[in-house]
Design a protein that fits this description.
The complex is a heterodimer of chains A (about 300) and B (about 325). Chain A has helices at about 15, 20-50, 70-75, 80-110, 115-130, 130-145, 150-155, 165-195, 195-205, 210-240, 240-245, 255-265, 270-300. Chain A has about 300 residues and is mainly α. The radius of gyration of chain A is 25 Å and the shape is globular. Chain B has two domains: about 65-105, no CATH class; about 110-310, MetI-like (MetI-like fold, Orthogonal Bundle), CATH 1.10.3720.10. A two-stranded antiparallel ribbon of chain B has the order 1-2. Classes of the chains: A mainly alpha (about 300), B mainly alpha (about 325).
Chain lengths: ~300, ~325
């Protein structure tokens, strides 16, 4: 990286004598941002680390008592919490798999000469830009068993999407797939358009079948970019709060973020929820680490 | 593909184009349904089976902004004909507009929430993008010890689940009195968008050739002049795209707004769903509020179309 750094000025030169030194400018440009992020992201986390060892409740004036690791022990032995993790895992798998299938499929379809291709692509991308909370609310209307348009269009009668405990998580995942397939599509399209045409021409000359061409040329070349999309979406799906919180309140749709929200702001178990937040945090940092390592690997190519 | 297409390829192409149009209709149907509900008469919003054809009305858009109460009996012709057309529309729906003693119309909560959303999104975008641009320049052009680690640190702050950050922030805000204030949300959204802005802007600034600035320095510019007169104008497209992304993120944000605000500084995303809460919700009014809330984002998406890939992948893919 060192060779990329701008030629520094000779400190005795006339140019350097005017104005601020490079060092001053660098510090002036970088330090405020780092400081801001430390104050508003890291400091709060340290603050709650302290609370995670106490039985503090923000709803009362009772002083916090130090209880050591008890919160962590309780949480890790709590079957309900593990159920929340299982639900989240199930949700992540369903929604990311759905997004990859739909998104990649759409990209394959779009990767050809189509009238108004630019406009169509932009319109297809619209759902992912909208507010999850607000659009999720309207999916409740769409899913409504009696006057919802989905049951009517599919001829499902009075099918219960959100009231049925087994179906609700799928229903939320479908909405998530609707919103975020465009994201996978966008990245896949970039990957597909970067596959060199001569490979396809060579495959054609060799009389390779469409399946062979897809699995030996298209997929391997698009896979790095597709992986970025998958990791990105996995991380976001793991954090999902808005959509599931708005659409259903079944115990079967209680994702980790929702459990955390309820524990902290409805049950006011501030100490315990801080400990829970730390457990989630460690998991997210783990996933982020994998993500960034992968990102750097892809960039190096 | 080869210039000459076989019969099979031609058919396959047509099928694919047809499939794309079907997908487009399916993807846009929910958005269409929101917009069409917003211009429906109330009694047609929740019918069995759903109403597709109807005579559009603007009544929901008027109702969104005013406080209403249910009419007890029929309105006298005198009052009805004295009312302006928009009030007649509300009266037609069996409701009357609530006024205070002086006769001024009492607003519903929507307008205030919309304004709050605008204030919070615009101010936080301004701070996130300006700080982000400076920092991105610093990381792009100067030697920084442990540069990659700092950049990872900046990125990692974005990856935290909002509820995890919200718990300690809520406690701290309570101490300093920032709960339910614009400033409180602005700080949170600035912090949230700052990491994004640094990463994206670093990509844009990396692409500006260093030779431009070096030439300016030789010509007698100071580094600061070179930054403001050479780099910033070159980076303008990137800055605009980053700003629009930050605006959309702040505009759409729900979890922080739900936890940190309840009335005074509440933004539209937590407010709109809260209207469904009790009784029979008037979906046409909610749809009208939602449509107005979605329009800025739809316009921005269209303006951003060439930068979506880069922005949504956090700068991982440039094109």
């Amino acid at each position: 990286m060192a060779d990329l750094v701008m030629t520094s000025l000779d400190p005795n030169s006339r140019a350097a004598a005017r104005g601020w030194s490079d060092l001053t400018i660098r510090n002036l440009f970088i330090i405020p941002t780092i400081a801001f992020l430390i104050i508003f992201n890291i400091f709060p986390l340290l603050y709650s680390l302290g609370y995670s060892f106490t039985d503090f409740r923000a709803s009362t004036n009772a002083p916090a008592n130090w209880i050591g690791l008890q919160n962590y022990k309780e949480l890790l032995n709590d079957d309900f919490i593990w159920r929340n993790f299982t639900i989240t895992a199930k949700y992540v798998i369903i929604s990311v798999a759905g997004q990859v299938i739909v998104g990649f499929g759409l990209a394959m379809l779009l990767n050809r000469a189509i009238p108004f291709k630019g406009l169509i692509t932009t319109l297809l991308l619209l759902p992912m830009m909208l507010s999850m909370a607000v659009v999720g609310l309207f999916w409740k209307l769409l899913y409504d068993p009696s006057f919802g348009i989905i049951n009517y269009a599919l001829g499902l009668g009075k099918f219960e999407w959100l009231a049925d405990p087994d179906m609700a998580l799928f229903a939320i995942a479908i909405t998530d797939i609707w919103m975020w397939s465009p994201f996978v599509m966008l990245l896949s399209l970039a990957g597909l358009s970067a596959v060199p045409q001569h490979l396809y021409e060579a495959a054609e000359i060799d009389r390779a079948g469409p399946f062979y061409t897809f699995f030996r040329i298209t997929l391997p070349l698009v896979l790095p970019i597709l992986m970025i999309a998958i990791i990105f979406r996995t991380m976001e799906a793991f954090k999902t709060f808005d959509l599931a919180f708005i659409m259903a309140s079944q115990p079967t749709t209680e994702l980790i973020s929702i459990r955390l929200y309820k524990m902290a702001f409805l049950e006011w178990q501030t100490g315990k929820s801080s400990a829970f937040a730390y457990i989630v945090l460690i998991m997210v940092v783990g996933i982020t680490n994998i993500y960034v390592k992968y990102l750097n690997k892809v960039k190096e190519r | 593909m080869a210039a000459v297409q076989t019969q099979r390829e031609v058919i396959f192409n047509r099928v694919a184009i047809f499939a794309v149009f079907v997908a487009l209709i399916v993807m846009l149907a929910p958005i269409y349904w929101i917009v069409s509900t917003s211009i429906k008469p109330r009694n047609l919003a929740t019918t069995v089976p759903p109403t597709v054809m109807f005579e559009p009305t603007v009544a929901p858009y008027i109702k969104t902004f005013v406080k209403r109460s249910q009419l007890r009996g029929p309105v006298s012709d005198e009052i009805y004909s004295a009312a302006p057309w928009w009030e007649q529309l509300v009266l037609d729906g069996g409701q009357k507009i609530v006024r205070n003693r002086a006769g001024d119309i009492r607003p519903s909560g929507y307008g205030q929430r919309f304004t709050n959303s605008l204030i919070v999104a615009i101010v936080s975008t301004f701070f996130a993008v300006s700080m982000g641009t400076f920092t991105a320049y610093g990381f792009s052009r100067f030697k920084v010890a442990g540069k990659d680690d700092w950049l990872f640190f900046i990125l990692s702050t974005r990856m935290l689940p909002p509820v995890v950050v919200a718990i300690p922030m809520f406690l701290m805000y309570r101490v300093v009195g920032l709960n339910d204030t614009h400033l409180g949300l602005i700080i949170l959204y600035t912090a949230f968008n700052l990491s994004f802005s640094v990463w994206i802007m670093k990509g844009f600034i990396d692409e500006i050739p260093r030779e431009y600035e070096e030439a300016a320095l030789v010509d007698g510019y100071t580094r600061m002049q070179a930054f403001f007169k050479i780099v910033l104008p070159e980076a303008m497209t990137g800055i605009a795209a980053t700003a629009v992304f930050c605006f959309i993120t702040a505009w759409n944000e729900y979890a922080f707004a739900l936890i940190m605000t309840n009335r005074k500084a509440q933004t539209a995303p937590p407010f709109i769903p809260s209207q469904v809460g009790s009784g029979l919700p008037d979906w046409t009014v909610i749809a009208a509020g939602t449509t107005m809330f979605l329009i800025p984002v739809a316009i921005f998406t269209f303006l951003l179309r060439n930068h979506l890939l880069r922005g949504m992948s956090f700068g991982a893919i440039r094109k």
